[in-house]
Amino acid sequence: MADDVLVEVRDLDMAFKIKGQRGQPTMLHVLHKLSFDIGRGETLGLVGESGSGKSTAGRILVGLFEPTGGSVKLFGRPITGPERRANLAAVRSRLQFVFQDPHAALNPRLRVGDSIAEPIDIAGTMSRRDRNDRVKELLEMVGLPRDSAERFPHEFSGGQRQRIVIARALALAPAFIVCDEPVSALDVSMQAQIINLLMDLQARFGLSYLFIAHDLAVVRAVTHRVAVMYAGSIVEVAPKDVLYEKPQHPYTQALLDAVPRPDPARVRPQVIGGEVPSLLVPPPGCRFHTRCPHAMPRCRVDIPVLRETGDGRQTACHLYEGPSVIPSAARDLPRSAHGASSAGDPSLRSG
Amino acid sequence: MTASSLVSIEDLTVQFRTDRGWTTAIEGVSFDVAEGDCVGVVGESGSGKSVTALSMLRLHARGTSRFARGSVRYGGQDLLRAPERTLRQIRGRDIAMVFQDPMSSLNPVLTICDQISETLCLHQGVSRAAARQRAIELLDLVRIPDASRRVDEYPHRLSGGMRQRVMIAIAIACRPRLLIADEPTTALDVTIQAQILELLRDLRAELGMAVMLISHDLGVIAEFARRVIVMYAGRIVEDAPVDVLFRAPRHPYTEGLMASMPALEGGAGRLYAIPGRIPDADEPIAGCRFGPRCAHVEAICQAAAPELVAIGATHRVRCTPRTRTSGTS
Amino acid sequence: MTEIALATGPAGGAVLAPRRRFIALRRLAAHRSFQIGLCLVLLLAVAAIFAPVITGIDPSAMKVRLRFKPPSEAFPFGTDSFGRDVLTRVLYGARVSLWIGLVVAVMSGVCGAVIGVLAAQFRRLDAPLMRLMDALMSFPAILLALGITAALGPRMESVIIALTVAYVPAGARIVRASALVVRELDYVQAARIAGASDLRIMFRHILPNSVSPLLVQMTFVFAYSILAEAALSFLGVGVQPPTASWGNIIAEGRDYATEAWWVMLFPGLGISLAALGLNLLGDGLRDVLDPRLKSG
């Protein structure tokens, strides 16, 4: 079982040093005690609004940032701590990244073939001929003509460039790809093509994805499990159908309610007020309590931690902790292992 | 179409200058906006939805674009040919606009109060003290908490959502009869988007103004508009009441667009994808510009460019096969 | 240049747009001021290169009897105080002046690019390198060059070194500014994720995408150097007679400016035309390469 966990993140903290209001250095805590696993062939969705830290988490996983706390293991090797450099070098070829903006992700001065082959060239493991054959093979894999290799990025549309970026990510046959908002810069009719391509490639090569996105509908289409982030922490993580059918955390509920549906007849639920709090002066206790319709006195003091609440779900919310909180609401969820009665959701959903 | 039309756009055709001469960005765009109406314009990049909006107020880039044909009628004048002075009066006072990026639309060195009063003073000639009072009222109206304090702040102190509220406050300062909102929520988070859309809905009801909402997001359009105009490659391809459009779209592009949206309500597996890509404005395509990507393309589609044909009192479609045999599903 | 290819991959129907190549070159070719500038510069360059063919006279051949002849059919630009043909001297002077301009532009460009990219890529080098550049920049370029040529002795090589030192800081600043933007772009991050070395990142990704503004700057440095060489030679610390440069021809002619105006006029025209041509060229380059500064 442990062999099948490609990514293991525990208590990840990340803080950036920034200039404060009077120019003095201040720490901006972007991630707080993040923990999750990603299995072989699995897609974990990481959703949240701006400032949730989802993109930073993805960048840490490919070694672009060194976290300030916690541990990250990739393919069983820790990329945090003293062995970081050696282990990163060892796992690099099995690790890739797909960017949001396909216009910024390709060097405009390089021919497409050279961009795609860059991971191969850096690894230096292939002869010139094998490399060029591999480029053609990769182009075909992502649905582009073989002769695209000779062209420059500006000759391609946004959707086609994203195919090129994906081809580059596949160059060394990686096992794990971080996709950071891979379709949000694309037009709706192009989005579906890229989503289908990512799913086809997963089926073909058994890839694992960390799929970072703000579009909840896209996330539902491509992922197996979903983690919802708010202001630097995961508030809920669950198999996707569990999460979308019965969201537990009040923030997850608010987020799902807020997504506009292509259904003019829909009765719109109450809109949640307020805004994401500043990470420089985060509110004490639960960071969502300033906007939460169910906030209790305790939420202003205690930071809730992720707990198993059944159905393979973990929620970080005081509503689902003590037996005394919502006694009547246990009907939707089985009791969790430690015997505390978990609270269900029906009374919380407004729509 | 309606008797009480506020703005009437007829055969609007706008061209852009490129290295290879003039290319047509939008062609033959015709529609009316009725008093108090709520029109959604939906389309992907290159559809011409923003060009249409900018052209209505003659805010297109001078020198690099031109009107080839058409008219935009408002209050008995053609805005495309009216003198610049008349247009300056109409902009902001009668027809206001809100854009996608609230940061670049606000001047960073002026306080919120300055920017709102600028519009007020320009169009209504109110005194500074009165303008400040009015600015606070407007901030209240767009639900900015603690308005009397916020009015003296600079834009960078505000979040994206708050900035967009300020933009809306400026836009409605003179009680316009039409508010054009070009992707007003695209840069915002989903919960903030819901707040802004709700605000726009409430303001429309309170002030009785017409709103033209431009978006790439069918969900936003479905939740906001009463009537929807679908654009593709510079042309209107379908125009219908919102419930009709989402229940029974007639144009293959509208169908494809809806089918390719992943649903929040579930359904895993491959998505329907419209094949091919959006054509460039100057790409030569015989007949229907959606033809090369259309699942139902026929010989007749390539023979001649289809016309926008009414297939009911309130429904127009630009598709030769569909309008010829209207009645089949 | 129009070929349309069809895809056969899993998604199918990924039709590419017709090919569009050399967009920048084509825009340049259509740019009016670039055309004029290029013509002027080429004209001067051709005249300089083929100077021996055009005149066939030795530029230092003195004919004292023919001193101060005004422009005529035999001497289209007249003769100077030693009876030398001014046309010949202006043509040979163009060789020296244009050569100095070109070498200074290229050398200061290359040094500026390397320093700018180093400063952007290695943040620890940034402060020392940029302070050094600031120090050099705080002197007026011509004063700095004057000091350096005075120290190195009045020779062409000294002029080149002095002007290169004087113009490196501007280039370094320009490259650093754009490199700082480029290094944060996604394709550079992609290279980092793939484990690319600093050298690879600098020379394959950052440098090629940061040099456009430098290219524009180089055309202006070319023009400034011609002017600066003239000034240095005029002050006597530049290229030394009998080697002709536009600067020292003017310097020699200044004592007789009222009687023999042609001695100063023609090299002066050469300088003006070269500076004008290079500036027009640079404007065209800037319009095409740097759309942010585009007017209209």
UniProtKB/TrEMBL annotation, chain A:
Start and end residues of each ABC transporter domain: 9-256
KW Nucleotide-binding (keyword) present: yes
Principal location listed in the UniProt entry: membrane
Highest taxon listed in the record's lineage: Bacteria
SMART domains associated with the record: AAA (SM00382)
A Pfam family this chain is assigned to: ABC_tran
Segments of this protein annotated with the region Disordered: 328-351
GO molecular function: ATP binding; ATP hydrolysis activity
GO terms for biological process, alphabetical: peptide transport; transmembrane transport
Membrane topology note: Peripheral membrane protein
GO cellular component: plasma membrane
Keywords assigned by UniProt, alphabetized: ATP-binding, Nucleotide-binding, Transport
Subcellular location, record wording: Cell inner membrane
Protein family (similarity comment): Belongs to the ABC transporter superfamily.
PANTHER family, per the entry: D,D-DIPEPTIDE TRANSPORT ATP-BINDING PROTEIN DDPF-RELATED (PTHR43776:SF7), TRANSPORT ATP-BINDING PROTEIN (PTHR43776)
Descriptive protein name: ABC transporter ATP-binding protein
TrEMBL record, chain B:
Translocase among keywords: no
Membrane topology recorded in Swiss-Prot or TrEMBL: Peripheral membrane protein
TM segment ranges: none
SMART domains according to UniProt: AAA (SM00382)
GO biological process, alphabetically ordered: peptide transport; transmembrane transport
Superkingdom to which the source organism belongs: Bacteria
Keyword flag Transport: yes
Subcellular compartments: Cell inner membrane
Domain ABC transporter: 7-258
Gene Ontology cellular-component terms listed: plasma membrane
MF terms (GO), sorted A to Z: ATP binding; ATP hydrolysis activity
InterPro entries found in the cross-reference section: AAA+_ATPase, ABC_Ni/Peptide_Import, ABC_transporter-like_ATP-bd, ABC_transporter-like_CS, Oligopep_ABC_C, P-loop_NTPase
Keywords of the record: ATP-binding, Cell membrane, Membrane, Nucleotide-binding, Transport
Family per similarity comment: Belongs to the ABC transporter superfamily.
The protein's name in its UniProt record: ABC transporter ATP-binding protein
Source species of the chain: Vineibacter terrae
Top-level taxonomy: Bacteria, Pseudomonadati, Pseudomonadota, Alphaproteobacteria, Hyphomicrobiales
From TrEMBL, chain C:
Superkingdom of the source species: Bacteria
Pfam families in the record: BPD_transp_1, OppC_N
InterPro entries: BP-dependent_transpt_permease, MetI-like, MetI-like_sf, OppC_N
UniProtKB keywords: Cell membrane, Membrane, Peptide transport, Protein transport, Transmembrane, Transmembrane helix, Transport
GO terms classed as biological process: peptide transport; protein transport; transmembrane transport
Keyword Transmembrane: yes
Main location: membrane
Membrane topology (UniProt): Multi-pass membrane protein
GO CC, any one term: plasma membrane
Subcellular location: Cell membrane
Keyword rRNA-binding recorded: no
Domain ABC transmembrane type-1: 94-282
Annotated transmembrane regions: 36-57, 96-120, 132-152, 214-240, 260-282
Family: Belongs to the binding-protein-dependent transport system permease family.
Protein name: ABC transporter permease
Source organism phylogeny: Bacteria, Pseudomonadati, Pseudomonadota, Alphaproteobacteria, Hyphomicrobiales
